[in-house]
Amino acid sequence: MPVHPLDLIAADSLLDEEELAIRDTVRQFGVDRLQPHIAEWFEAGTLPARDLARELGGLGVLGMHLEGYGCSGTSAVAYGLACMELEAVDSGIRSLVSVQGSLAMFAIWRWGSEEQKQQWLPAMAAGEAIGCFGLTEPDFGSNPSGMRTRAKRDGSDWVLTGTKMWITNGAVADVAVVWAQTDDGIRGFVVPTDSPGFSAPVIKSKLSLRASITSELVLDNVRLPDSAVLPEVSGLKGPLSCLTEARFGIVFGVVGAARDCLETAIDYSVNREQFDRPIAGFQLTQKKLADMTVELDKAFLLALHLGRLKDAGVITSEMVSVGKLNNVREAIAIARESRTILGGNGITLEYPVLRHANNLESVLTYEGTEEIHTLVIGQAVTGLAAYR
After folding, report:
1. Is 310 helix (H, G, I), strand (E, B) or coil?
2. Which of the residues are catalytic?
3. Which fold has domain 237-382?
4. Among residues of the chain, what percentage have pLDDT more than 90?
5. Strand 131-134 vs strand 175-182: parallel, antiparallel, or unpaired?
6. N or C: which end of the chain has fewer CB within 10 A?
């Protein structure tokens, strides 16, 4: 009898009971609540983000790997498995959770004041408040040190001016963590989105991550008290630490997208007949399925290994770059190859493979492009920085 691709490496045997329970709970939520609607949301270019945030908060996945303040305090592996199951539905759903928990919440949890933590984290963990993370700008993505957003002192206040770009959750957020140049270097600010001068125009006409709210952030002389500054960090260390957290979720998440594509391709090939037999019985199809299975299994093992290292407290940002570069690259290859097995049917929203492929084009770029992660790894093994 056929076996699941991940059963060829006995993947479940590598997980403990709690990890399996969390994975299965999130998977069932995806099947029951998300899968019936995701194609419709993708086609319409929208997402009921506020409703989903509350439901995801009730599920306990928002900031789930953080301790205290209403957060679940799970292991990194458990968080990764949750990301995997959410992205098996759609990258946009995982992005909502990643930006909430690993960017906005983590920034406040790691670098914020106790007052900021108490004000925002419990509500964000419950999904009652949504956060976004403002780092990328129209002219500065891979080189955030060149950002033009500025925060200037005005008496005891700060005044922020600038524009951020490609901000997930921006138009529905209650709070934005915004990074800006100051006279003392780059600092982070906790910005309530109802502040005068703050706006978040929605970016429309996307061909990828359509089931996700993506916005600009416009800061037009936004005045904030001194208490809005994240007090525990200055410089790029702050935002880059948050990106490492979010990239870790991607390492697991894209395995879910790849798995869903491969499962779809296998099921289709077994049931689709040409020349009087299932196309799964042809050698060329089986080679495609076998190659994709091997890459999926390797990606899962890499993600799990990095998760164990993270739980042991010994993971580095370069290790996360290895995972992000490999797993996104292989996931998008699996999505594209799966589409070929489905033929013309593969381009429709009746099947998820091209939707996943389109989404993964964004995942390939955000939170470190393929090129940047390549150069991070290159620097690690040579000691030479090729991008400076």
Report:
1. helix
2. 367
3. Butyryl-CoA Dehydrogenase, subunit A; domain 3 (1.20.140)
4. 99
5. parallel
6. N
Q: Which of 115, 124, 241, 125 is nearest to 176 (CA)?
A: 124
**CA neighbor of 96 nearest in space, from 39, 134, 52:** 52
Angle 365-369-374 from CA coordinates, rounded to 5°: 145
User: What pLDDT score does 302 carry?
Assistant: 98
Q: What share of the chain is helix, strand, coil (3-state, %, to 5)?
A: 60, 15, 25
272 token code pair: 């689709």
CATH dotted code for 131-228: 2.40.110.10
- Domain range list for the chain: 5-125, 131-228, 237-382
Angle formed by the axes of helices 91-98 and 76-89, to 10°? 140
pLDDT digits (tens, 9 = 90+) for 311-361: 999 999 999 999 999 999 999 999 999 999 999 999 999 999 999 999 999
Q: Do domains 131-228 and 237-382 have the same CATH topology?
A: no
Phi, psi of 226 (to 5 degrees): -60, -25
Decide which of 3.90.550.10, 3.40.50.2300, 1.10.540.10, 3.30.420.40 is the CATH code for 5-125. Answer: 1.10.540.10
Instruction: Read off the pTM.
Output: 0.95
